[in-house]
Amino acid sequence: MSQVPSPTAPPEEAMSYYQRHIFFCLNQREGGKDCCSQHQAQVAFDRCKSQAKAHGLLGEGKVRVNKAGCLDRCAGGPIAVVYPEAVWYTYVDQDDIDEIVQSHLRDGVVVQRLLTPPDVGR
Predict the structure, then answer these.
(1) Which end of the chain has fewer CB atoms < 10 Å from its terminal CB, N or C?
(2) Do residues 45 and 26 make contact, with C-beta atoms less than 8 angstroms apart?
(3) What whole-number distance in Å separates Cα of residue 25 and Cα of residue 67?
(4) What averages of pLDDT result for each successive group of 10 residues across the chain (122 residues)?
(5) Which residues contact 23 (CB under 8 A, 6 or more apart)?
(6) Helix or strand or coil: residue 30?
(7) Distance separating alpha carbons of residues 11 and 113, to the nearest angstrom
(8) d(CA 40, CA 118)
(9) Cβ atoms 115, 103 nearer than 8 A
(10) Given this model, what pLDDT does residue 62 score?
(11) Is 44 exposed, middle or buried, given 0-12, 13-18 or 19+ CB atoms closer than 10 A?
């Protein structure tokens, strides 16, 4: 039985192209089932992208704002997740998005009041 070599960790500077990556679920579920797209997820995505740009946060070594399909946490929707920290947010309005941009994406401080409870799924 041959052993699989353990991977060597890449140098710190090679670990990620972006410092943070935020994904917004924009999924539309069939049959009228509740989903993020029914809760202004596209508007929130657009707001996040424009605010991140206004704060000079976008680009290599900074932040990437992305659309995602279903993140399988529909019951907490609308949902966004920030990596590499794997912090899940439930937001309600543009003020929430602005707070995520300024606090988490810019300053690295998690917005505790917007955290999606860990037991919330589909």
Answers:
(1) N
(2) yes
(3) 6
(4) 50 73 90 82 97 97 96 88 96 96 98 93 75
(5) 66, 67, 68, 71, 80, 81, 83
(6) helix
(7) 35
(8) 22
(9) no
(10) 97
(11) buried
Alpha-carbon gap, residue 39 to 45, rounded angstroms: 11
Here the tokens at position 112 are 């505790």
Q: Are 90 and 79 in contact (CB under 8 A)?
A: yes
pLDDT of residue 75: 82
Rg, the chain, Cα only? 16
User: How far from the centroid of its chain's Cα atoms is residue 37's Cα?
Assistant: 15
Q: What's the CA gap between 88 and 20, in Å, rounded?
A: 13
Q: Which amino acid is it at 14? A: A
What SS3 string covers 66-91? Answer: EEECCCCCHHHCCEEEEECCCEEEEC
Q: Which residue has the tokens 């929130």?
A: 44
What pLDDT, on the 0 to 100 scale, is given for residue 121?
78
Burial 4-38 (b: 16+ CB within 10 A, else e): eeeeeeeeeeeeeebebbbbbbbbeeeeeeebbbe
